[in-house]
């Protein structure tokens, strides 16, 4: 995983012009708060997703972060107003504005990350980490193994690229959103995970991370060394992964879609790497190797028929498809799964197949394909 150079939190900050309303006898209200923090919502969502491994939980924590930050701003302004009582209304309002400006400029972004990270750490206390099937058990060699979902397992979820809001380069930072890397991050102790993200992904210096997390710079550096060591193999492998806009990867995915829709098992298998992996949360089952994946695909076509349509999308800065199959009545194509692909120079190296209503909702997938080409 490439390490980011630290950029000043104010480099892309909104205008410093702020307005604080001070109703007579009432609390100080920071009216510009929403406008100031709006540019940070997307990157905070990505940050919370990296920490938690689930989009819906990340959205909840971003809302909580914004609420906490707003209350902190207004409490700071209120304290300033009370401290200047008796100096006149004009002076009070002016000092309140300055207090809010000092609290919000230029470290507002850093403070938001601190609040969000602490909220994530609190949410993770006593909770089992999110996983993929390959992190729970060994591969299966039985293509006809029972497909029983394990609903008691907190499964890792994919992240819709559509939620990046045009900030892909800034939010993704060369592979830091890849599904395999996010999965590996979940295996780290939460504090190490937080340090790794704040230091290597976001580029904050050790002293600033220590201040955000209420620890020492030495503790931050120690946690960072251990986290880097734990993720060394995964990070190196992710450097060779193609993104959804990579030309060669796009051409390979076009061939994959055609072969799958034709129910051409040999054609699909030919596009896989020799050590390709297929896993299917919430089923505690996965396959390793091109041949094993092909045998399971034959079973899938036997179970669901050979009439499929795949709709291209993107997840975790990787190619993905929504898979629809013809229903039993032969009238509609109904949603089956979301599939997220890891594409390397030699072909498709991993296909993580999600069958989860929350994942479908996050990607806004229609339960029935509206138009069939």
Question: What is the structure about, briefly put?
Answer:
With 373 residues, the protein is an alpha+beta fold. It is built from 14 helices and 8 strands.
Number of strands: 8
Order of helices and strands: EEHHHHHHHHHHHHEEHEEEEH
Helical stretch tally: 14
Query: Could you tell me how far the N terminus lies from the C terminus, measured between alpha carbons in angstroms?
Result: 40 Å
Mean pLDDT: 85
Task: Tell the overall outline.
Answer: elongated
Helix content: 40-55%
Strand order of the largest sheet: 4-3-8-7-6-5
Biggest sheet record:
6 strands, mixed
Strand share of the residues?
Answer: 5-15%
**What Rg do the Cα atoms give?**
24 Å
Pairing-aware structural class of the strands and helices? alpha+beta
Weakly predicted, low-confidence segments: 7-20, 95-106
Keywords: Nucleotidyltransferase, Sigma factor, Transcription, Transcription regulation, Transferase
InterPro entries: ECF_Sigma-70_Domain, NTF2-like_dom_sf, RNA_pol_sigma70_r4_t2, RNA_pol_sigma_r2, RNA_pol_sigma_r3/r4-like, SnoaL-like, WH-like_DNA-bd_sf
Domain SnoaL-like: 254-350
Family: Belongs to the sigma-70 factor family. ECF subfamily.
Lay out the secondary structure.
Blueprint: E1 20-21, E2 29-30, H1 33-37, H2 41-52, H3 55-83, H4 89-104, H5 108-124, H6 168-172, H7 179-186, H8 190-201, H9 206-213, H10 217-238, H11 247-261, H12 265-269, E3 272-279, E4 286-288, H13 290-304, E5 308-315, E6 318-326, E7 333-344, E8 347-354, H14 357-362
Parallel strand pairs: 3-8
Antiparallel strand pairs: 1-2, 3-4, 5-6, 6-7, 7-8
Helix pairs in contact: 2-3, 2-5, 3-4, 3-5, 5-8, 5-9, 7-10, 8-10, 9-10
EC number: 2.7.7.6
Organism: Actinomadura violacea
Domain SnoaL-like: 254-350
């Amino acid at each position: 995983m490439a390490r980011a150079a630290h950029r000043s939190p104010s480099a892309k900050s909104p205008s410093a012009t702020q307005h604080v309303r001070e109703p007579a006898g009432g609390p100080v209200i920071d009216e510009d708060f929403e406008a100031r923090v709006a540019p940070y919502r997307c990157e905070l969502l990505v940050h919370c997703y990296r920490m938690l491994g689930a989009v819906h939980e990340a959205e909840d924590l971003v809302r909580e972060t914004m609420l906490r930050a707003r209350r902190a701003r207004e409490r700071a302004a209120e304290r300033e107003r009370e401290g200047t009582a008796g100096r006149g209304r004009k002076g009070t309002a002016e000092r309140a504005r300055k207090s809010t400006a000092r609290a919000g400029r230029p470290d507002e972004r850093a403070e938001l990350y601190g609040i969000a990270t602490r909220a994530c750490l609190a949410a993770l206390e006593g909770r089992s980490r999110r996983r993929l099937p390959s992190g729970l058990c060994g591969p299966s060699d039985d293509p006809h193994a029972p497909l029983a979902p394990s609903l008691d397992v907190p499964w890792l979820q994919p992240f819709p690229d559509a939620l990046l809001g045009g900030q892909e380069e800034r939010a993704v930072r060369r592979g830091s959103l890849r599904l395999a890397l996010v999965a590996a991050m979940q295996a780290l102790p939460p504090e190490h995970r937080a340090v790794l993200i704040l230091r290597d992904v976001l580029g904050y210096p050790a002293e600033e991370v220590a201040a955000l997390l209420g620890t020492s710079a030495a503790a931050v550096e120690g946690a960072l060394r251990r986290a880097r060591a734990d993720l060394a193999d995964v990070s190196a492998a992710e450097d060779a992964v193609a993104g959804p806009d990579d030309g060669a990867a796009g051409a390979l995915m076009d061939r994959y879609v055609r072969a799958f829709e034709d129910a051409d098992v040999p054609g699909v298998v030919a596009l896989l790497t020799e050590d390709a992996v297929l896993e299917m949360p919430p089923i505690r089952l996965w396959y390793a190797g091109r041949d094993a994946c092909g045998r399971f695909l034959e079973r899938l076509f036997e179970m669901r028929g050979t009439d499929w349509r795949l709709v291209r999308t993107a997840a975790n800065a990787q190619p993905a498809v929504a898979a629809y199959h013809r229903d039993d009545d032969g009238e509609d194509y109904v949603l089956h799964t979301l599939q997220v692909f890891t594409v390397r120079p030699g072909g498709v190296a991993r296909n993580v197949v999600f069958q989860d209503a929350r994942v479908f909702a996050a990607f806004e997938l229609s339960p029935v394909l509206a138009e069939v080409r």
